[in-house]
Amino acid sequence: MVLMILGCSIANDASKNSGDFDSGSFVSDTADYLEDGVVAERGDLSEDVRWWKLSANLVLTNDEIELSLLRTLYTADMVLICEQTLTVEQVVQIASPFGGDELWFSTTLGEHNDIECPFSRTEGDLKFGMGPLISDLAVATEMVEWDEEIDQSLFSDVSPMGAYVLDDQEVSIIAYGLSYSMTTELESQWVHIRPIYSFLW
């Protein structure tokens, strides 16, 4: 049995609710398997990073995968601190924990070194992918923020799926956002993942 956990949203005050999700259970939670906050210096300003969100852009062509990851950091009150483009050392496609043909990936992240957003943490392997569009994600489709360089109209007829990550023990699947996938005329598959819920830093 796989435990489904919803990434924490400040809006729901990390309240816990139980319900049914297929053969497993679904719990609204703070995704507190991640470490607690850390304080870092930005010039003369000391910010307490409390939350982060993850966006991903992928292009799949034959056996090649191009991946870019953006991590957005926030204070406890969800005030934006800064954004980090993560260093991806390796990305491979893996089997979906849902047992279907959903796209899932395992990434090895490199050391982060950004003077404009100098907050760092111990980076482990990140496993994320697509899954069912559960109601807690479906109601937030209007909250998706698209990159300026992405033509949103290309995805106007694309039905979103859920975006998920696996915890470090690979026991819990955490629902945190929406994923959009389309195949171009050149037979490349584009996948764009946008966050709805945030994780503890």
Please characterize this protein's 3D structure.
It contains one helix and 15 strands; from the N terminus they run βββββββββββαββββ. With 201 residues, it is an all-beta fold. The chain has one domain. The radius of gyration is 17 Å and the shape is globular.
Brief summary:
The chain has one helix and 15 strands; from the N terminus they run βββββββββββαββββ. The chain has 201 residues and is mainly β.
List the topology elements.
Elements: E1 3-6, E2 18-21, E3 24-28, E4 38-42, E5 45-49, E6 51-61, E7 64-74, E8 80-85, E9 88-94, E10 104-109, E11 126-131, H1 135-138, E12 161-166, E13 172-183, E14 189-195, E15 199-200
Parallel strand pairs: 1-3, 1-13
Antiparallel strand pairs: 2-3, 4-5, 6-7, 6-14, 6-15, 7-8, 9-10, 10-11, 11-12, 12-13, 13-14
| Mean pLDDT figure | 75
Largest sheet: 13 strands, mixed
What portion of residues is helical?
under 10%
**Rough shape?**
globular
Assign the structural class, choosing from mainly alpha, mainly beta, alpha/beta, alpha+beta, or little secondary structure: mainly beta
How is the quaternary structure best described? single chain
Strand content: over 45%
Number of domains: 1
| SSE ordering | EEEEEEEEEEEHEEEE
Number of strands: 15
Gap between N and C termini: 27 Å
Radius of gyration: 17 Å
Stretches where pLDDT falls below 50 for ≥5 residues? 9-46
Helix count equals 1
Which tags fit this structure?
about 200 residues, mainly beta, 13-stranded mixed sheet, two-stranded antiparallel ribbon, 15 strands, about 50% strand, globular
